[in-house]
């Protein structure tokens, strides 16, 4: 499969509620990049399935490929999942700060949407030292697994609320 720079896509990070897909459809989005969502691979397992059911074509990427997509001008918008919002920042799925910084640098819209379910702040060390229940890191290697991080308001362009379509765009 060849992806061309003349066909940039929305980059989605996190698994949202039903209104995420409704908002994508309302915006006329037909294809998206989906970050895999390590360590539990929610993007690959849950979001891709939901998108396919709604006739939106996902292209799955590893979480660390986002910078490459920006570099190649393959991203036209970024949508990231949030758990909560206060006046100055949003508590988002890990990796969102990197996407916010990349969005600002490349002048790309960053919209946040509510996550489908509440997440813990930290995962278990085995979540990163193992893959599909098989240890991949040598014995003695520790794992640090933050699952959420704060995304400052200066990186957020738009927001999808729980029961409404996109706002502040």
Tell me about this structure.
This protein is an alpha/beta fold. The protein has one domain (9-120, 148-162): Rossmann fold, CATH 3.40.50.10470. It is 24% helix and 30% strand. It has five helices and eleven strands; from the N terminus they run βαβαβαββαβαβββββ. It has helices spanning 18-26, 42-53, 66-71, 96-105, 126-129; strands at 9-13, 31-35, 57-61, 75-85, 89-93, 109-114, 130-131, 134-135, 148-152, 158-160, 166-167. Strands 1, 2, 3, 4, 5, 6, 9, 10 and 11 form a nine-stranded mixed sheet that branches. It is globular and about 45 Å long. It starts with 8 loop residues before the first strand and ends with a strand. Mean pLDDT is 90; it is low at 163-169.
Itemize the secondary structure elements and their pairings.
Elements: E1 9-13, H1 18-26, E2 31-35, H2 42-53, E3 57-61, H3 66-71, E4 75-85, E5 89-93, H4 96-105, E6 109-114, H5 126-129, E7 130-131, E8 134-135, E9 148-152, E10 158-160, E11 166-167
Parallel strand pairs: 1-2, 1-4, 2-3, 4-6, 6-10
Antiparallel strand pairs: 4-5, 5-9, 7-8, 10-11
């Amino acid at each position: 499969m060849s992806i061309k720079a003349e066909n940039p896509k929305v980059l989605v990070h996190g698994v949202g509620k039903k209104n995420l897909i409704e908002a994508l459809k309302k915006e006329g989005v037909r294809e998206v990049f989906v970050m895999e969502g390590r360590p539990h691979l929610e993007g690959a397992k849950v979001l891709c399935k939901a998108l396919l059911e709604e006739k939106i074509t996902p292209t799955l990427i590893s979480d660390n490929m986002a910078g490459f997509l920006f570099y190649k001008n393959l991203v036209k918008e970024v949508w990231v999942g949030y758990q909560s919002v206060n006046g100055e920042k949003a508590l988002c799925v890990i990796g969102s700060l990197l996407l916010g910084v990349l969005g600002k640098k490349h002048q790309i819209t960053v919209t946040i949407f509510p996550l489908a379910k509440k997440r813990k702040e930290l995962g278990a060390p085995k979540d990163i030292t193992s893959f599909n229940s098989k240890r991949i890191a040598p014995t003695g290697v520790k794992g640090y697994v933050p699952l959420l991080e704060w995304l400052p308001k200066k990186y957020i362009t738009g927001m999808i609320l729980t029961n409404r379509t996109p706002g502040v765009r």
